[in-house]
Specification:
The protein is built from 27 helices and 24 strands. It is an alpha+beta fold. The protein folds into two domains: 311 residues, Thrombin, subunit H, CATH 2.40.10; 259 residues, no CATH class. The structure holds arginine and glutamic acid (GLU). The site of glutamic acid has 9 residues, from strand 22.
Length: 706
């Protein structure tokens, strides 16, 4: 009887258990995932998602800027992404007079949309398998370094050729640790304009406290528009440009969602390392994560203090602070998760099974027998170099003025061939732009704290007087003011200028550290090359070992599909996360005394008058509220920010923006029982646009399914 019960229970749960990890290649969905996706509830075909010949949903997905995803949501080139993805751009458009970060921004018509210099949006036109061409002339017997040189040469040549053939941007990327290569043909648009952006009190609500956490109430979205020339082609900004007509745009579904609904995400996940060996995981847990966390903790404390003191400093550091805090917290969560879940032990168990398989066959022993021990050896040998590189990146260069001394090197190196002194004006401009983005007292404090720590860690026996160094850097060096630099360049004598630079403290210190780091990097690169060669074989072996099991390549900032179910989770022993949050929860967190949790009065008023438009749901007590965020089992990572979260019929139901704290380890080890992505419900986005931003004209251009 009992067994029957268990059996029935298993049958009952089975459909849910199908959800699985993986960031899948859109052009292989048909052969690898379509059946699975349809069995989980998907109503469209793999070809509706990606098709080389016909239009497909792929044509509504873009790379936003350099690291996020966005989706096209109207026939007039309107795109939706995360607030935090547009944050740097909007910071650049902001000033104390027009602070769009704290006030928000809503264009009332096309004329009011704001050009965003430097921002780009990139479509994927086509993806080709070029493995054979890239591997041309390669023999397995060749040394790793020779192989990689040949491959690089092939890639460069092929990219050139494809660019000439197509006229588009071309990028070839390696998959499965250099076992396969795919070519991405891309179209990049450069006239992008800001259309709608909620204030921090909505778009960044909960700030760093709630970041990477559930329950979540951040209205993390921003709306932009792609402009093109009259031929609908990419063009630099011009008042003559017109809204871009996309090949495809998303229909938006506001009918409502439920737990266990099938859902999938289309976007550009940045980087994962799911196939690391146990020694690789150890490196993350014992070297890189802890070093990074420690430096960032200090840097953030200094920033917090400075930013709370005045608004100018707040704006200067808002975006830097957000990105530093973001990964600081992620690494903390990752380290905690990996530790709690015995990641190294788990990897070791998997490795033992793998070795058993290897040891069953003489051929395999010859090919793969030493792989894991060689990896272990490489990791242990490179440990110091890895640590040192982190001390440089996170510690030494935290002082931005010290890093900026690269400008003196550039001037020094450019002097020999300089033909026109007028050209040197750009250096002064560069320095004055730099000074607009930093606060000297704050930057000095970074140096005093972090540079000191880094030097102590790297050279415990040398005692450099960091304060003397910083005093000279900030008060006496050529870089200490734009005037100093101007005065130097005004001498217009190459050899005098050169010798002045060579005597300069900023220059000398920079060259010393830069050279030291580069030497370390050379050593590290050699070791990395070996490691890459070993992973190439290891992944190949793993695919043979797990024959029949679908394999996905690690994220590498290329277009992927991930799928799963809307679902809550038991995140910690005895702690259940309900799958959905609502506006009620945001209002409950409102705290006018804490900036991160201060909700704009207008939203509070909308909440009280229950003016929710078409976007409300009914609670159990019969009252109305607006759904805000939801959890799902989609396997996502950084870069998936702004990605469309899509229902079984291919319609937009939300925008991906985060993961839960307990599952941040998913970049190294995904666990369906712990990992959840966090999505902003599209109804909250539309509610804010229509009722808070009063930008109904934007809703009117969307295709909304009710
Ligand atoms: N954690 C999310 C992501 O990785 C959101 C980050 C927003 N930044 C922040 N510091 N709150 O991008
Ligand atoms: N917020 C992340 C990003 O900027 C996405 C969340 C994640 O890392 O899963 O891409």
């Amino acid at each position: 009887m009992r067994n029957l019960g268990v059996l029935l229970l298993m049958v009952f749960i089975a459909p849910l258990a199908q959800a699985k990890e993986g960031m899948w290649l859109p052009f292989l969905l048909e052969q690898m995932n379509e059946k699975d996706m349809r069995s989980m509830g998907m109503k469209i075909k793999a070809r509706d998602i990606y098709d080389i010949n016909e239009g497909s949903l792929k044509d509504a997905i873009v790379i936003f800027g350099s690291g996020c995803t966005a989706e096209v949501i109207s026939e007039k080139g309107l795109i939706l992404t995360n607030h935090h993805c547009g944050y740097g751009t909007v910071q650049g458009l902001s000033s104390v007079e027009h602070n769009y970060l704290t006030q928000g921004f809503w264009a009332k018509n096309h004329q009011e949309e704001l050009p965003c210099p430097g921002l780009t949006v990139t479509f994927i036109v086509r993806i080709d398998d070029v493995t054979e061409q890239v591997k041309q002339g390669i023999q397995e017997s060749m040394e790793d370094s020779i192989q990689s040189k040949l491959i690089q040469a092939n890639i460069t040549q092929l990219e050139k050729q494809k660019k000439a053939e197509t006229g588009y941007d071309v990028l070839i990327k390696s998959f499965f640790s250099d076992n396969e290569y795919y070519c991405f043909i891309m179209e990049k648009f450069t006239d992008i304009r800001l259309v709608g952006f909620p204030p921090n009190g909505i778009g960044k609500f909960g700030g760093d406290t709630d970041n990477w956490a559930w329950p979540r109430h951040t209205g993390d979205f921003g709306v932009f528009r792609i402009y093109a020339n009259k031929e609908n082609k990419p063009a630099v900004y011009s008042a003559e440009n017109v809204p871009f007509k996309p090949r495809r745009s998303f229909a938006i579904n506001i009918e409502g969602i439920e737990e266990n609904d099938f859902t999938w995400v289309y976007g550009f996940p940045g980087r994962t390392t799911e196939y690391l060996s146990s020694a690789g995981v150890r490196e993350v847990m014992e070297t890189t994560d802890p070093i990074r966390i420690a430096y960032r903790e200090k840097r953030l404390a200094i920033m917090k203090d400075a930013m709370s003191k005045d608004e100018k400093t707040f704006i200067q550091y808002a975006s830097k602070q957000a990105s530093i805090a973001n990964y600081w917290k992620k690494w903390k969560g990752e380290l905690l998760g990996l530790t709690k879940n015995n990641a190294i032990e788990k990897k070791k168990q998997e490795e033992a099974q793998f070795m058993q398989w290897v040891n069953n066959d003489a051929n395999r022993i010859a090919q793969y027998g030493q792989l894991l021990s060689n990896l272990e050896d490489c990791y242990s040998k490179q440990q110091q170099a890895v640590a040192k590189n982190e001390h440089y990146n996170e510690g030494v260069w935290a002082c931005e003025l010290l890093k900026k001394a690269s400008l003196l090197r550039d001037i020094h190196d450019a002097l020999d061939t300089l033909s026109d002194w007028g050209l040197t004006e750009k250096y002064v401009k560069d320095l004055s732009a730099f000074y607009k983005q930093i606060n000297k007292t704050t930057d000095y404090a970074f140096g005093k704290e972090l540079l000191t720590d880094a030097l102590n860690a790297m050279y415990p026996n040398d005692h450099l007087n960091v304060e003397n160094l910083l005093d000279a850097l900030f008060q006496k060096s050529i870089l200490s003011s734009e005037e100093n630099l101007k005065r130097l360049l005004a001498i217009k004598d190459k050899s005098i200028i050169k010798s002045e630079i060579e005597k300069d403290i900023a220059y000398k210190t920079f060259i010393y550290f830069d050279t030291d780091q580069k030497n370390n990097l050379t050593q590290l690169r050699e070791s990395q090359q070996k490691i890459t060669g070993l992973y190439k074989k290891y992944i190949k072996a793993l695919r043979e070992f797990k024959e029949g099991k679908q394999f996905y390549p690690d994220a590498n900032s290329t277009l992927r599909v991930t799928y799963g179910n809307i679902q809550g989770v038991e995140a910690q022993d005895g702690m259940l996360y309900h799958w959905q949050t609502t506006l009620d929860g945001a209002i409950a967190k409102n705290n006018p005394n804490v900036t991160e949790f201060k909700i704009p009065q207008k939203l509070i008023d909308l909440f009280h008058t229950k003016d929710f438009g078409d976007y409300s749901i009914e609670k159990e007590n019969g009252e109305k509220t607006v759904p805000l965020a939801f959890l799902a089992t989609n396997h996502t990572t950084g870069g998936n920010s702004g990605s469309p979260v899509i229902n079984a019929r291919g319609e937009l139901i939300g925008t991906n923006f985060d993961r839960i704290w307990e599952g941040t380890m998913s970049d190294v080890m995904y666990d369906i029982n712990l990992c959840r992505n966090i999505t902003l419900d599209i109804r909250y986005t539309l509610f804010i646009i229509e009722k808070f931003g009063e930008a109904r004209w934007l809703i009117d251009e969307m295709n909304i399914v009710k």
